[in-house]
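Appendix C: a fully annotated inverse folding record. The material below is reproduced so that readers can follow the format used throughout the book. The structure is listed first as tokens, followed by the designed sequence.
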């Protein structure tokens, strides 16, 4: 979920060339097991985004049923040497 959220944030033209630092995870719930062969569809939604900090909400579904969900906190930084 964190990787999907990172793609979402870095896809914005204003964030290209920046780096995302994973800061924390909250309110995580595992609802059902995911086994080999399952296809997990991840969704990420921006809850809050300020200039350098933000929060994402992620949900992973298998066959339309929620397998896991949670909130992640991240920081945006500039690429080293840029």
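Designed amino acids, in order:
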């Amino acid at each position: 979920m964190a990787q999907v959220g990172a793609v979402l944030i870095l896809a914005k033209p204003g964030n290209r060339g920046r780096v995302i630092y994973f800061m924390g995870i909250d309110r995580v719930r595992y609802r059902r097991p995911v086994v080999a062969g399952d296809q997990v569809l991840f969704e990420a939604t921006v809850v809050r985004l300020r200039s350098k900090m933000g929060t994402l909400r992620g949900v992973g579904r298998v066959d339309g049923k929620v397998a896991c969900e949670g909130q992640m906190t991240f920081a945006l930084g500039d690429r080293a040497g840029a």
